[in-house]
Amino acid sequence: MASNQFVVASPPTDAISALKFSPSLDSTRIVVSSWDKNVYLYDLRDENGAVGEGKLLQKFEHRAPVLDVCFGATEDEIYTAGLDWDVRKIDVASSTQTVLSTHEAGVRSVVYSKDHNLVISASWDCTLHVHLTNDPATLPAVIPLPSKPFSMSLTATKLVVAMASRALHIYDLKALALLTAQSEGTAPGSLNKVEVEPWQRRESSLKFMTRCVACMPDDAGYASSSIEGRVAVEWFDPSAESQARKYAFKCHRQTADDVDIVYPVNTLAFHPVHGTFASGGGDGVVALWDGMAKRRIRQYQKLPSSVAAVDFSANGKYLAIAISPGFEDGKEDVAEGTVKIFVRELGETEAKGKGAK
Amino acid sequence: MGKKRRGPTLEEVLGRPWCYYCERDFDDLKILISHQKAKHFKCERCGRRLNTAGGLSVHMSQVHKEQLTAVDNALPNRSSLDVEIFGMEGVPEDIIQAHNQRVATQFQQAEAERQAVTGNPPPGTSATGGQPAKKPKLESVSDLKKRLAEHKAKMAEARAGGSSGEATPVGAGQTPTIGGYAATSTAPPPATTPSQFSYPQPYGAAAAAASPFQQPPQQTASPVYPTFSPGGQANAQYAAPPTTFSPQPFSTGVPGQPPYGATPPTYPTQQSPPQTHTPPQLGGAFPPRPVGLPAAPGLPQRPAVGAPQVNAYQMQQMHMGHTVPPTTGMNGADKASGAAAESTGFSGSVDDLISGAAKQAEAATATPPTTTTTTAGKPAEGEDQKPKKDKSKARLVYSDNETSPEEKMARLSRYAYVPDQRGETVLEELPSAVVVGAIRESDTVVDATD
Predict the structure, then answer these.
(1) CB < 8 Å to A35, chain B
(2) Is B157 among the domain residues?
(3) Which of A229-243, B256-270, B434-448 is most confident?
């Protein structure tokens, strides 16, 4: 156990908001955003190429806590979303930050679409900003949302935005890219507002606030999780057969004295190869699930604090787990607690589904 | 006595629970409910039985992701999901009426056919009990008196014959007799002491309140002073009252025992003769089912009346069960009336017995309905409660369904961000609901800098 799991050196000093692996296939770089206003870039390999506790490559300071981060087209390109309302692009090589757009409230999440060269940010001001990265001169398209967005995830063709009031929009990325390109030309300075009808509007299958959405790597569907220890798996295909396949299950719960303590499921991540997914909960547990066979593959030992983020490496060989004290009921303040990043080297079949029943 | 009842009455038929979906009727509600679960509320996918169509619909949509459109095995016009049916609950009034109408016509048809075939009179009139059973009911007071007199004459003869065989343990012999009297002769006591007590009182007062003098005479009287029977003739009118209390309580009534034991010494010599009479009395005095009769206050009138408030079915039962009591009642009453009233020894016990009997009767009638209702109600309640329990037991670690943890954290002062380069105008535009914390913080910062 201990041999294939290690703790990343020099973790952030405050709660972690997001953690992402590099999209480059055999890279072991991780970017981490934190409430301590910094974005951290780690490489798990040391100088000799051995994967271990890794080292902190760079630290990018922001004006406010950073709520989300993602890699761009290459490892040298990082996008961040922060409480300072800005969406930023960081050029790693030069350590320069560029503000892509500014929202009217904190920016909750940011995603990058390689296939359409889009950076999409979602803010609590109930808008999406869509940026064309290959044409930085264009103004971002501003897409109004019905509610505050809480989580975002995309596939090659779709963007899923999970919002408050259990709303969920699925956008077609191609349409978004096209609209953003077309809407170009409006006077600079004014907001480039675009009313766009989502490809699908859905209501969450979960009764409670959506915590996280994650799309399947095969572009077939997505999983969503709620604050009430539950994960739903759904498919994009609107046909009745596909919709009939959707399901939800309980997880991240503990029974103590006949009381079921229900933890929020903070994070979800799909395995890029096997199509299974990991969930991380407020209970400090990470579990691997086979969404197709509707089975749990394994559950890892409880970690000392709430799991804030999980991600698989692009080649599926590593699983990174960020833990930080959660913001839970009755706690008006986030306790000073353990903020750590664990990286697990997965065995060949560790995250592989066992096949259908 | 009466003939066996031929078939169910209309009331019974109408009272049968029936299924809204297929109009089938059942012996009782439980069977109906299990029928509905099996035939109409069963999930065709997994075989799970739900309690209602709504439940099945929710089950289908949640578990199998299918939409239930119609109730299985239902009549074409009854397959709607809109009506929430559980057993007989939820059936629309108009449909109930239509059903009753249909059942009633069917019943009448069947009845008519049967009458045509058998030539029997319809039930409820006299069919089941038959005319003979009905007759005594309608006996006029004068007839009753006549018969009483005849009977007394017979008794006197018998006594003259003088088989004083059982002079043995009085207590043992008495218990049954008392039972017989208690059952039949409760009314008469006032007759013996008419000046003292008005009629309704003993009954209205019920056992507990009744004064010791009221009952004792009747009880002790018959065994003790059989010779006074002639005197009882005056009371013949009271004789008819049928039994209000079941005999069982008396035989089992424990409280009654000590008084009995006490009485024998009081009338040692007199007791032997009455013993002979006990057997005949017993035979008549124990009505099989006394409970069905109306309460005591109506007693004095009963013999002459056709008991108007009783429906046909009850009437039948009474006929079958109680054809005799009126006549035997006369015996008891007659003796009771004849009895000299002194012995107070029984009073307490009789009171106890009567109240006990009343209570038992109450309990007997009261319990079955309650149990049935509770059992009928339980399954629904139980299943409702289960999910609730689960919910109440679950505790959400993070239960704010409106504000995400990140937003809460963002409001903490240490994370607050002041958009410095934006200036006041932007601050005013701030959607306050979203970044309240930030605004507050900005104020303090301004203060600090000032």
Answers:
(1) 409, 415
(2) no
(3) A229-243
- Range B86-93, long-range pairs (CB < 8 A, 24+ positions): B86/B33, B86/B36, B86/B51, B86/B52, B86/B380, B87/B17, B87/B29, B87/B32, B87/B33, B87/B36, B87/B376, B88/B17, B88/B18, B88/B20, B88/B29, B88/B32, B90/B20, B91/B20
The pair of three-digit structure tokens given for residue B234, joined into one six-digit string: 């005056």
Read off the CATH number of the domain in which A142 is found. 2.130.10.10
Confidence of residue B170 (pLDDT cuts 50, 70, 90): very low
Q: pLDDT band for position B175 (50/70/90)?
A: very low
Q: What is the span of the domain harbouring residue A128?
A: 2-345
pLDDT per residue as tens digits for the range B327-346: 444 444 444 444 444 444 44
B205 and B77 in a single domain? The answer is no
SS3 call for B274: helix
Task: Tell me, yes or no, whether A214 lies in a domain.
Answer: yes
Nearest by CB: A259 against B393, B429, B431: B393
| Domain assignment of residue A356, yes or no | no
With a CB-CB cutoff of 8 Å, which residues 27-86 of chain A face chain B?
A: 35, 63-65, 67, 82-85
Any A CB within 8 A of B394 CB:
yes
Q: What are phi and psi of B356, to 5 degrees?
A: -60, -45
**Calpha distance A130→A111 (Å, rounded):** 10
Burial classification of residue A351, based on how many CB atoms lie within 10 Å of its CB (0-12 exposed, 13-18 middle, 19 or more buried): buried
Domain total in chain A? 1
Q: pTM score, two decimals?
A: 0.50
Chain B nearest C-alpha distance from A277 (Å): 22
* Chain A contacts in chain B segment 419-448 (CB below 8 A): 419, 429-431, 434-435
Q: At B4, is the pLDDT very low, low, confident or very high (cuts 50, 70, 90)? A: low
Among left, alpha and beta (phi > 0; psi -120 to 50; other), residue B65 is: left
Residue type, A110: V
Q: Please give the tally of structural domains in chain B.
A: 3
B258 and B334 fall within a common domain? yes
ipTM score assigned to the predicted complex: 0.83
Could A262 and B402 be called an inter-chain contact, meaning their C-beta atoms sit closer than 8 Å? no
Backbone torsions φ then ψ of B2, nearest 5 degrees: -70, 165
A85–B400: do the CB atoms touch at under 8 Å? no
DSSP string of B286-322, one letter each residue:
--S--TTSPPGGGGGGGGG---TTS-HHHHHHHHHHH
Cα end-to-end distance, chain B, whole Å: 110
Question: Are the C-beta atoms of residues B205 and B335 closer than 8 Å to each other?
Answer: no
Q: Which phi and psi (to 5°) does residue A35 adopt?
A: -75, -5
C-alpha span between A330 and A334 (Å, rounded): 10
Tell me the C-alpha distance between A320 and B377, whole Å.
54
Suggest the residue from A125, A165, A204, A227 to mutate for an interface test with chain B (most B CBs closer than 10 A).
A227
Q: Is a pLDDT exceeding 70 seen at residue B348?
A: no
Identify whether residues B110 and B204 lie together within a single domain.
no
Q: Which domain holds residue B261?
A: 130-149+172-367
Beta bridge partners of B161: none
C-alpha A224/C-alpha B431 separation (Å) is: 28
Q: Which residue matches tokens 């007997």? A: B364
Residue A276 has pLDDT above 80, yes or no: yes
Percent of chain B scoring above 70 in pLDDT: 35
Residue in the block written with tokens 């060989």: A317
What is the dihedral sign for C-alpha B313, B314, B318, B321? positive
Residue B258 · residue B293 · CB < 8 Å: no
The whole-number pLDDT of residue A231 equals 94
Q: In terms of Cα–Cα distance, which of A74, A84, A89, A78 is closest to A40? A: A78
Model pLDDT, residue A67: 92
Adjacent-strand bridge partners of A42: A30, A56
Q: Is A331 on the interface with B (CB under 8 A)?
A: no
